[in-house]
Amino acid sequence: MNTRNKTLSALAGHDGSPLISNEKLHAIYAAMLKCRMLTGQNRKLGAGREASIVGTILALCPHDSVSPAAGELTPYLVKGVPLRTILARLNSESDVLPARDTVRRVIAPGADFTAQMISALRVARLNRKAKNSSAVAIFCECAQIARGAGLQFLRSAAAERLPVLFVCHAKASKKAFAPKAQDYGLPGFAVDGEDAVAVYRVASEATAHARRGNGPTLIECRPWPAGGQKKTGTGNALRNMETYLSRKGLFSAKLKADLTAQFRRDLDKAAPR
After folding, report:
1. Res. 70: pLDDT tops 80
2. How many domains, the chain?
3. Cα separations (Å) of 48 from 43, 85, 233, 269?
4. Mean pLDDT in the chain?
5. Containing domain of residue 130, as a range?
6. d(CA 99, CA 77)
7. Where are the beta strands (DSSP E) in 61-177?
8. Which of 133, 150, 167, 173 has a CA positioned 20 to 30 A from the CA of residue 217?
9. Looking at residue 139, which CATH number applies to its domain?
10. How far, in Å, are 11, 35, 124, 213 from residue 76 at the CA level?
11. End-to-end CA distance of the chain
12. Integer-rounded Cα radius of gyration of the chain
């Protein structure tokens, strides 16, 4: 990966990226649908960010770690933490997973952004020291990483060549930060935050970059303008994915109904009694 900044929108097509298998596309869609069902419309739990979270985590390997923002549940779900544990956390103030679930490689976010970063970068340093090729994906707000302590974390990760993906969620009203990432020693990519395929492609490249020992990458997920109009973030990631699959002959109402029915059964089974 070079250090030039890129902007990608795969669902718009014509980006020249390698093809993704039909199996992987179905896996991305299924995970997005489950995330939407789990969180409903509660953005604090990760609703509306299915594309960026699923696209990133499914580009990782099981031995890679994720660092969710405080309160977000969808990274836990996509990483394979049992539903019973996730639902129990809805009624708990603790962000600490039971010991038996730490093997899922989810790093407890801590009390605030600084605590989250310290914990995540500690894991990345251990990975680099062990030379185990494992990466860490950190989910945060772009406004947090683009100022003060956030910039220091970027500098440290770049200077130490840590195997990290900084996945930052940005607002349409804010100027893109990705072009400035190289000023802090790492490549920066802006991507459509409602385009799971684009996120998956960028995250796959960034993960390979990290495994080669080349250090961190910043991925800025932001609302994407269409037809020259500003986009304010309408939460259409799931609909976008359905349209994309339909164009490839991979989507049907029955597919969605079957996935929905199965996950409802899983939720009912996992619900606290």
Report:
1. yes
2. 1
3. 6, 22, 9, 25
4. 86
5. 6-224+231-270
6. 17
7. 65-67, 136-141, 164-169
8. 173
9. 3.40.50.970
10. 26, 10, 19, 27
11. 49
12. 18
- Predicted confidence at residue 43, as pLDDT, reads 62
Query: For residues 119 and 191, what is the distance between their CA atoms, to the nearest angstrom?
Result: 26
Q: How confident is the model at residue 272 (pLDDT cuts 50, 70, 90)?
A: confident
Does 248 reside within a domain?
Answer: yes
* Tokens found for residue 108: 């407890």
**Of residues 144, 157, 156, the one with CA closest to residue 220:** 144
Contacts of 66 (CB under 8 A, 6+ apart): 56, 57, 60, 75, 79, 105, 106, 107, 136, 137, 138, 139
Closest CA to 197 of 133, 256, 136, 248: 248
Phi, psi of 179 (to 5 degrees): -60, -20
Asked if the structure places residue 140 within a domain, the reply is yes
- Amino acid 252 reads S
CA dist., res. 221 & res. 199, Å (int): 8
Rounded to the nearest 10°, the torsion over CA 11, 189, 168, 155 is: 170
pLDDT tens per residue across span 226-253:
544 555 445 689 999 999 999 999 999 9
Specify which residues 140 forms β-bridges with: 168
pLDDT digits (tens, 9 = 90+) for 140-168: 999 999 999 999 999 999 999 999 999 99
Question: Nearest 5 degrees, angle CA 190-CA 61-CA 25?
Answer: 65
- The number of angstroms, rounded, from the C-alpha of 215 to the middle of its chain's C-alpha atoms is 18
Say if residues 175 and 222 touch (Cβ distance below 8 Å).
no
| Residue 1 lies inside a defined structural domain of this protein | no
